[in-house]
Amino acid sequence: MNGCRAKGSWVADEKDTVHYSGAAGGWGSVRGMTEVLARERPTPAALDTLRRQNKPGGFMCVSCAWGKPKHPHPFEFCENGAKATLWEMTSRRCTPEFFAQHTVTELRDWKDYDLEHQGRLTHPMRYDRATDKYVPCAWDEAFAAIGTELKRLDPKSTVFYASGRASLETSYLYALFARMYGHNNLPDSSNMCHETTSVALKKAIGSPVGTCVLEDLEKCDAIFFFGHNTGSNAPRLLHPLQEAVKRGVQIVTFNPIRETGLERFKNPQSPVEMLTGKETEISSLYLQVKAGGDIAAIMGMIKHVLSTEERRWREDKRHVLDVDFLAQHTTGFETVKAHAEQLSWEEIERESGLARADLEKAADVYIAAERTIFMYGMGLTQHVHGSDNLTTLVDLALLKGSIGREGAGISPIRGHSNVQGQRTVGISEKPELVPLDRMAEQFAFDPPRDTGLNTVDACEKIISGEVKAFIGLGGNFVRAIPEQVKMEQAWQSMRLTVQIATKLNRSHLINGEVAYLLPCLGRSERDMQVTGAQAVTMEDSLSCIHGSQGNGHPASDHLKSEVAIVCGMAKATLPPNPKARWDDWTADYGLIRDLIEESYPEMFADFNARVFTPGGFYKGNAARERIWKTESGKAEFTVPTSLSALGLGDKEGRWRLMTLRSNDQFNTTIYGYSDRLRGIEGTRDIVLMHPDDIAAAGLAEGQVVSLASDADDGEHRQVDGLTVTPYLLPRGCIGAYYPETNPLVPLWYHDEASKTPASKGVPVRIVT
Ligand SMILES: Nc1nc2c(c(=O)[nH]1)N[C@H]1C(S)=C(S)[C@@H](COP(=O)(O)OP(=O)(O)OC[C@H]3O[C@@H](n4cnc5c(=O)[nH]c(N)nc54)[C@H](O)[C@@H]3O)O[C@H]1N2
Ligand SMILES: Nc1nc2c(c(=O)[nH]1)N[C@H]1C(S)=C(S)[C@@H](COP(=O)(O)OP(=O)(O)OC[C@H]3O[C@@H](n4cnc5c(=O)[nH]c(N)nc54)[C@H](O)[C@@H]3O)O[C@H]1N2
Ligand SMILES: [Mo]
C-alpha cells in the first residue's frame, strides 16, 4: 500500500482496502471548508471573525487546544477550526416554534447530526411534562426554579459537569458556586480524556500537564508520536511538524491506523505547495502497533536503549544514557532496567504486534537524537492500563534526560480548547488540587473538603439513584459517557437536569423530572455587559493563557453569557454573602480575573495586564525546571503493572474495538459524513477490519453486522447496523465511530488509576 501515490484521490490497494493516498491539508481541506460554508450558511460577519481567529486581540478557536503562536499566520486556523467557528456562526436557528412542533420523545430518535443541524438555540426553555415538549420561559423564572430545587436537595447529591470549553472566568465561578453550595462533584470532560495524564504524569514527574512549549518544537531533533490523529484533531500542529521535518527532524509514529496527517501534509496556507502539489512526508517511521500494544512497544525500545548503552560503554566508554541526570534526578531506574531485561522479545513482539527490528530502528532514532519530544493522544490515555502507557513513556524519556530540557519533553495533545485551564482554576473533584484555604478567606465560607465525584463515579451514583440533580456547563454528557443505554434509563429518575448549551443535542432530550435548557453566547460572539464588551481567557495544551474577544452579533437577543448564567443560578441558590458579588462579576469580568489572581498568585500574577500577551503568557511548570513535585522529590521510573494496556486479554471471537473520531466531527457534534483523510464517505455506520480478518471471520465486505459486548460481565450491550469495511488495521483490531458505539463501553472498563473510560480497547464480538 505504500505504493499508492496518486495525489489526493481514493485508491484501493491490492486488497481493495480504502486508503487515502493524498496529503492532509491541501485542496481537500479547502473543499472541506467550502462544504461547511454551504451547509451552515454563516452570517457575513463569520468570515471577518475567521480572520481574527487565534490572533492577539481576536478570539481563540473553539476547536482544539493546540498552542497559538506569537507570530500568527495571516489565517491562523485550519479546516476543522474554521468548521467549528462556522458551526457556531451558522444562520440556522432552533427556536421555540421548532420545539412546539416536536415532542422530546420524538426528537430522541433523531441523529446527532440532525439535532445540531437545527442551529443555535435562541430562548431559555423549560421541559413541560404534560405535553412532553420544551416551552419557552423567562430567565428569571428559570433561575428561580433551579434555585428552589437546589435549595431543597442535599448538595452532595448533585453534580456540576463542565465540558472543557467554558472560559477561565466562567469555570472559576462555576467551581466556586459548587463549593459555596456544598460539594466537590465537579467532573469535566477531562475525566473521559486526559485525566490519565493528570494522574500518571503527576505521579511520575510531579506535573499534571505537559512540559513542552511551542519553541521546543523548533529545537528538537526527534519527535515520537503515540495515538493521536493530528490531521483531524489538531491540524494546526501539522505546520510546526512540517517545519520540523524540513529541518531534518525524525518523526516516529505509533498508531494502529495509518493516519494521513501523520504521513503526508500539504500546507493549505502555502500558495506554492497548493499550486505545485508539493507535500511533505511527515513520519520517517510509521509503526502500526496493535491497539493496547504500546507498553510492550515502549518496553522494547527501552530494552534496546539499555543494550546499546552496555555495548557502547564496553566498546568505547561512551554513554547513551544521561547518567548524571539519572543519578541526580530519578529514582527506580534499576527496577525498570531489571524489568526490561527479563522481558523476552517474543512477548514484546506478540503484545505490540511489531517486529523487533522495527522497534530497534525506532529506538535508534531516539539514541541518535540529542533532543526528543514525546507527544500523545487518546490512543494512550483511553485504556485500562492507560496510566501504565504514560509512565512507561516517561521511563523511556527519563533514560536520556529528555524532560526538563530545551527542545525535549513530554507533550500530551489536549482536547477541548480550555479543558486544561478548567482544571487550573478549580474545576476538579479533588479538593487537594484547589487552594481551598485561600478561597475560604477570599469568600468567607467553609469549603467542602471531601473528594467529589468524577465522571465514572457520577454515572455509578446516577444509576444507584444517589445523584438527584445534574447541571451541564456545555457538552453532551449522556452521549459522551460509556454504558449509554443503562445511563439513559437511570438519567430520567433524577429530580433536576439543567443544560447550558449553544445547540440541541441528545443530552437535552434525556430529562430529569424538572429540566431546563439554557442557551448561551458562543465564544465568537460579542459579550456585552453593563460595563461594556467583555473578554475571556483560556489555557492551551502548552500551558499558555490567551485572551479572547468575540465580535460576532449574538445568535439571538435572548442569549446570556456563560458567566451570567452561572452567576444567575448561584445567586438564586445561595444565601446572601457580601463577598459573593455575582452581579458585579457579571458586569465586569476583569473583577473575576482579579479573584483568580488572588487564588493563584504564582500562575496569574498581573493577570488583567497580561490577557492579550502575543502567544499567550506561560503559567510555568516545575518539571520543566527539573523540580519534581512527586512523592520522592525525584522523577520516578515506574514498572508497568501489565505488558498489555487492555483490561481483558485475547479470546476466541473477541475483537479489540477502537472508538474513533472522523475528520467531520467535533466529539459528539457531527458536522457531516466525510472522513476525508481516511477515505470513508457518506456514512458513519461502519466497522473497519483487516481484509484477512473479514475473510477469517467468514464475513464479506459490505455485510451489515452488529457489535456486542464481550466483557464477561453478563451485561447485554449491542450496536446494530454497521457495515463491514475493509481497512488496513492490525489483525484482531477493529475500528468504529464514537459516539455511535458508546453503548458498548462498560462503565467499569476504565483506566485503573484515573478512571478514564477505556474507549480504545473495548472487548466486543461480531454478531451476524
Ligand atoms: N476536529 C476535531 N478536533 C478535535 C476533536 C474532534 O472530535 N474533532 N476532539 C478534541 C478532543 S476533546 C480530543 S480529546 C482530541 C482527540 O484527539 P485524538 O487523541 O487524536 O483522539 P481520537 O480521534 O480518539 O484518536 C485516537 C488515535 O489513536 C489511535 N489509537 C487507537 N488505539 C490506539 C492504541 O492502542 N495505541 C496507539 N498508539 N494508538 C491508538 C487511533 O488510530 C487514532 O489515530 O481532539 C480534540 N480535537
Ligand atoms: N467511546 C468514546 N467515548 C468518548 C471518547 C472517545 O474517544 N470514545 N472521547 C471522550 C472525550 S476525549 C471527550 S472530551 C468527551 C466529550 O464530551 P463533551 O465535552 O461532553 O461533548 P461535546 O461533544 O464536546 O459537546 C458538544 C455540545 O457542546 C455544546 N456547546 C458547544 N459550544 C458551546 C459553548 O461555547 N458553550 C456551551 N455551554 N456549550 C457549548 C453544544 O450544545 C454541543 O452539542 O467524550 C468522551 N467520550
Ligand atoms: Mo477530549
UniProtKB/TrEMBL annotation:
Keyword Calcium: no
Record domain Molybdopterin oxidoreductase: where: 120-499
Domain Molybdopterin dinucleotide-binding: 656-762
Pfam families, A to Z: Molybdopterin, Molydop_binding
Gene3D superfamilies: 2.40.40.20, 3.40.50.740, Dimethylsulfoxide Reductase, domain 2 (3.40.228.10)
Nucleus found in the keyword field: no
Signal peptide: none
Annotated keywords: 4Fe-4S, Iron, Iron-sulfur, Metal-binding, Molybdenum, Oxidoreductase
SUPFAM superfamilies attached to this UniProt entry: ADC-like (SSF50692), Formate dehydrogenase/DMSO reductase, domains 1-3 (SSF53706)
Cofactor: [4Fe-4S] cluster; Mo-bis(molybdopterin guanine dinucleotide)
Similarity-based family: Belongs to the prokaryotic molybdopterin-containing oxidoreductase family.
PANTHER family: PROTEIN YDEP, RESPIRATORY NITRATE REDUCTASE
NCBIfam families noted in UniProt: Fdhalpha-like
The protein's name in its UniProt record: FdhF/YdeP family oxidoreductase
Species for this entry: Sphingomonas olei
Lineage: Bacteria, Pseudomonadati, Pseudomonadota, Alphaproteobacteria, Sphingomonadales
